[in-house]
Amino acid sequence: MSDPSITLAVEKLAKHFANTRQAAVSEVSFHLRQGDILTLLGPSGCGKTTLLRLIAGFEEPDYGTVMIDGRYVVGEGREIPPEKRGVGMVFQDYALFPHLTVGENIAFGLQGSGKLTKATQQRIGDVLQLVGLEGLGQRYPYQLSGGQQQRVALARALAPRPALVLLDEPLSNLDVQVRSHLRQELRHILKAAGTSAIFVTHDQEEALAISDAVGVMQQGQLEQIDTPETVYYRPRSRFVAEFVTQANFLPAQRLADGWDTEVGLFEIATELEGDRAELMIRQEQIRIAHDPNGKGVICDRQFLGREQSYRVELPSGQRLNVRTMARIPFTVGDRVSLTIDPFALQLFPAHP
User: Fold this and answer.
1) Average pLDDT over residues 86-115
2) Span 170-196, mean pLDDT?
3) Residue 301: strand pairing partners
4) Domain architecture of the chain: domains with CATH
5) Element at 288 (helix H, strand E)
């Protein structure tokens, strides 16, 4: 018997396209709880969009199973077509019909035509209110901003009350300010609707901000799936650490009283074998201060508005990326001392 609290169960789902050496999706398994938002995060070509299309039914897997709302849509001898899976889809380019009004676009998602029955009109009004577009049902897509068009696309996907909504990089065509605002609106809308959702992006900040869980993908594999905080502070692999946090890595040598690095000695509990490792230090963990005898030299600076981004060169030639809220900027050539916040420091195996 299926668990009613699980909206989506994916087991060992795999897809390999012809004339490619690397599997697009390689035996991916995960569960999504009812009402939760999962973000699939990873670089271009990692398989996140292919995985979304396999769940939606736009691609046929080589093997594996997909269960949505307690029934198999792939596997157990079944291959349910996309329109019968109880899934709503929001595309990167919105995919709105330009010749239909907002209301008619949403009606199409409800009944496959532009006809507006009384029941359809009621539902259109409900979802327009949900996405904050009351009173705009008679407008055409060209009369709306990009952010408003994306809300219409979401309203159309939510109108049939699907068990699951899939969003394929829905904010990538928007400018930065609109994107930042709309991502929180999307989370609010999805939570208000009580709908489970999978959100695909390659933007780390976006993934961490919108999600109940983040799944990080690389070369078709799901490297880690956890809460945003766990993925950020406790990455399971060096790839996750590099991609999600853009962390620094320093060579570390095991001594009797801790792990010795160029920026200090640290006591870190680890199950790593051997005496060599690499210490992960996130950019915001490093505090710098003017010091004529300091080990570091500022070799680059970028002003990012709310914070400063620096590159600090150590005597070995290793360069560390540092982010700080310091109001008085350092200048290129300044010598600085470095202090490391020990919270959630983590060791990874040393490169051969």
Assistant:
1) 83
2) 86
3) 310
4) 6-242 (3.40.50.300), 247-349 (2.40.50.140)
5) strand 286-290
Q: What is the dihedral of CA 122, 125, 127, 128, to 10 degrees?
A: 170
User: Residue 34: its pLDDT value, please?
Assistant: 94
Please report the DSSP string for 243-266 in residue order. HHH--EEEEEEEETTEEEETTEEE
Q: Cβ(200)–Cβ(171) under 8 Å?
A: no
Entry pTM: 0.90
Q: What is the pLDDT of residues 53-74, one digit of tens each?
A: 999 999 999 999 999 999 999 9
Least confident of 259-268, 298-307, 323-332: 323-332
What is the model's pLDDT at position 213? 97
Q: Residue 75's pLDDT is what? A: 87
Q: What angle do CA 175, 181, 187 make, to 5 degrees?
A: 125
Q: Please measure the distance between the N-terminal and C-terminal CA atoms of the chain and give it in whole angstroms.
A: 48
Phi, psi (5° rounding) for residue 91?
Answer: -95, 165
Torsion of CA 26, 31, 37, 40, to 10 degrees: -10
Find, among 43, 49, 48, the residue nearest to 246 by Cα: 43
